[in-house]
Amino acid sequence: MKSSRVRAQSGQTILLILALLLVFIAMLTWIFGVNRYVTRKLRVQDGGDAAALAAARTQASGLNLVGELNLIQAYMLSTYGESSELLAATQTLEALQERLRLTTPMQALVSAQLLAEKNNLDALPMADVFLEEFGEKIILDSYYEGAEEDFRQMMDAFLRHARQNGGMRVFPLAGFYSQSSFYSYLTDQDFYEAILANDWCWFWFNAYPFLQRYSSRKDFGSLPDFDMRPFFDLRLTTQIYSLDEVRFLTTADTMGRPQRLYPRMQGALDALGHPRILAHRPADERLTQDVVAVRWTTYDPGYWGEWEAMQDNNLPLEGTLKEKYNYAGCNAAVSVTKDGATWIAAAKPFGDLDDENPISTNFVLGGFEDVRLIPVDAADKGIRGFDYMWLSHVYFHLPEYLAHGWHMDGCRYCNALQKWERPSFRATAIEWLSANGRRSCRRKVPPGPGPSGGASYAH
Predict the structure, then answer these.
(1) Cα torsion at 167, 169, 174, 177 (round to 10°)?
(2) What are the helix (H) ranges across 294-350?
């Protein structure tokens, strides 16, 4: 009897030890898994941040070089000399500025790719295919003749390097597939997700009239034009002024007070350590107007402006945004991946010029000396991570769908369109919304962008 009790206690002890051993193994597995996840997340985050900063630093260098050429032109035009010689010199400076505007985006991509390779980030599937497609469609109306071919040659060289070194490790997001002002449900990912999830309230707030009147795919209309300017674009333009006109142009300082541009140029030269522009020449010693009227590189007013995303507490900001940093433009946003983890990072150049906002003169004069990471939402609107399934649908599937009604196998977005086209699906949605939409679909934030508000909601 006693031996049976001893054997039972021994068995219980063994079971307890086994249980503790299993708990210990489970804890070790959990700790190892968490450590691996955190390490993987840190690696992809560090690599993505480094790539975005590298691209932004290249953009800052491009802006500074363009600004230097503007200042050199001002200095040249303020000196004495033969008009024909100065005309040829200013044309050379203009050509250099145009090529800087074209080469800087590709150099920024190369810098980001090299940092991603050094951080051993994973190759992005089909990224090279989409970049090649983008290069074939790029439009460079504001550049010199033949700029598209030069850009494609640079892109071909980049793609050869990427393919020889394991693929593209970084994908540029700034300006790559941002839409034009024309809206289409076909290029709105939320439209497809609402269909797949039977999310009727999305249609209540965003597409209820469209849902009611839809009869065929022709109701979608044509696809919107995509922004086909260079990614990481400096967004610069040119304006024609004579040096004498520049002397009397006014800008505004950080307090909104009018200031003449010419003294600001002098201050920029001082701040950058260059000789000052010579004094104003007498009227009888000025060059002829056809020579004096030259092109100056300026910031595109439709893109550079106040940094609206950081105003009115739209994004968390410690303290107050200093006026000299309050400008949008020249964002570098990238998407990277490592061991299944994805990271999106955005950065932009900062600086000041003679203690003022570097874009306050509208003329590009340089002064960008720092780059910082910024919230992704504070960069270009509509930025999302690299999603090759979505890009495949937008670039390759949708044209075939609109032209022939084809659906590609294995594409979840094509599956959503097939579901949408079933009259029974739309009838069910309309019936439910007619009975419950006003009562059950409730907004939780103010309306955002979209065809009819596009607000988030709870239901």
Answers:
(1) 40
(2) none
Question: What is each CA distance from 370 to 21, 48, 59, in whole angstroms?
Answer: 54, 18, 11
Tens digits of residue pLDDT in 44-67: 899 999 999 999 999 999 999 999
**How many residues would you count in the chain?**
459
Rounded Cα distance, 349 and 108, in Å: 12
| CA–CA separation, 177 and 173 (whole Å) | 7
Torsion of CA 108, 109, 110, 115, to 10 degrees: 90
In 10 A of CB 229, how many CB atoms?
20
Q: Which amino acid is at 33?
A: G
Q: Are 236 and 364 in contact (CB under 8 A)?
A: yes
> What pLDDT, on the 0 to 100 scale, is given for residue 448?
42
Give the span between the Cα atoms of 102 and 67, in whole angstroms: 15
The dihedrals phi and psi of 286, each to the nearest 5 degrees, come to -75, 155
* H/E element, 76: helix 2-77
What does the buried/exposed string (b/e) look like for 162-198 if buried means 16 or more CB atoms within 10 Å of the residue's CB? beeeebbbbbbbbbbbebeeeebbbbbeebbebbeee
Copy the structure tokens of residue 162: 């990427």
Beta-bridge mates of residue 336:
343
User: Across residues 159-179, what is the average pLDDT?
Assistant: 84
